[in-house]
Amino acid sequence: MAEELILLDEWLSMFGMRARIALAEKGIKYEYKEEDLENKSQMLLKMNPIHKKIPVLIHKGKPISESIIIVEYIDEVWKDKVPFLPSDPYQKAQAKFWADFVNKKVGDVGGRIWAGKRDEIELAKKELIEGLKELENVLGDKPYFWW
Ligand SMILES: N[C@@H](CCC(=O)N[C@@H](CS)C(=O)NCC(=O)O)C(=O)O
């Protein structure tokens, strides 16, 4: 399986972490390729020519980009394992809402902390903490979001 499945990633990336967690949850073996984002590989540029970003999952030579799309793809292809999303349409919509919340309130805000100016960083930090508290509230004591 490993030669059929490659993950282009960067260890620090929360988006890459999504793909790594999804693969680990399903118990799937894959080849991990660390990218230097200051000096992107030809493989990354070829496999994600539109955004040129990690993570990219390459399955039997075909690339899948965008972390949420990668997670959904893994869930659909490895159906024999425990599903990531609830089957009930309303619960599924809720799960997707919170995944989108993480993009906006953790991903975007985290990016502002990483790249921002001093005042901007302080504001973004507050937003990040508020966002994490919201997640904590909705997760409660459950080990997984919708279980
Ligand atoms: N929406 C994308 C975001 C991916 C992303 O922002 N990746 C960053 C690393 S965390 C990247 O590759 N940055 C390189 C660049 O912007 O040139 C996803 O969910 O996969």
UniProtKB/TrEMBL annotation:
GST N-terminal domain boundaries: 3-82
Subcellular location, record wording: Cytoplasm, Cytosol
Chain segments annotated as transmembrane: none
Domain called GST C-terminal: residue spans: 88-147
Main localization (coarse): cytoplasm
Domain of life: Eukaryota
Pfam families per UniProt: GST_N
Reactions accelerated catalytically: RX + glutathione = an S-substituted glutathione + a halide anion + H(+)
Keyword Nucleotidyltransferase found: no
Gene3D superfamilies with a match to the protein in the record: 1.20.1050.10, Glutaredoxin
GO cellular component: cytosol
UniProt similarity note: Belongs to the GST superfamily.
Functional summary from the UniProt entry: Is involved in the conjugation of reduced glutathione to a wide number of exogenous and endogenous hydrophobic electrophiles.
Protein name: Glutathione S-transferase
Species per Swiss-Prot/TrEMBL record: Medicago truncatula (Barrel medic)
